[in-house]
Fold this sequence. Notes:
- Helix content is 38%, strand content 19%.
- It is α/β, with parallel strands linked by helices.
- It has one domain (2-93, 162-251): Purple Acid Phosphatase, chain A, domain 2 (4-Layer Sandwich), CATH 3.60.21.10.
- It is globular and about 55 Å long.
Amino acid sequence: MLSKFLRPSRPAPAASFSVAPGERLYAIGDVHGCLDELERLLTLIDADDAARSPARTSLIFLGDLVDRGPDSAGVVARLLDRARERPPIRFLKGNHEEVFLLALAGDREALRLFCRVGGRETLMSYGLTRKEYDALGYDELSERLPDLVPPSHRDFLESFEDLIVSGDYAFVHAGVRPEVPLEEQVASDLRWIRGSFLDYRRPHPKMIVHGHTITEDVERRANRIGIDTGAYASGKLSALGIEGAESWTLQT
């Protein structure tokens, strides 16, 4: 199944990019409902951070916390708790959060898409049984959704950002529209773009760190770094650590 989404992963020559002075950032790729992998990666991040010199440490989740994996509800609950207990932590809205929220708001077309891209597993993680899922039509399912998902989870997902910048880096879910200034990017591109971004070889205004497109390993190019390693199918959830001009990878 993973091979359907994979792009070849090739390293690029190293270049000098830095985050804001005094910051240490950990960018985490698409979790997709994989709570066990998330817990393991958070443990790795905490240990790595503790082993380094003191810094202003932040976590940035690149979006797509939900769908496909077995426990989207658990992932959302875990990260909501972590954000309350141990800030700073920031979240980007992925295309799967976008579709999930539209479905929760009653958009029937979004609900149909949601069910095709892993929403069944998300709904089952919120307590809907497989038998109930198979028996319900879209109208009935739409009526059930608001009762399944706690308001705190919905509010949390609604609060996610579109773009985060630190020093020479910009963090997005899917990518950016080439040759468009960062301040003029539109949300649909930031959450959904693939080909025109992935195939672009010239520099962007910042080094772009993104998820959304699965590669076998972290993909470093001259103008972007992709860190979606398909955790729901591969078991490999990846994080990119960055401090000053140094960057490194942590993986389950």
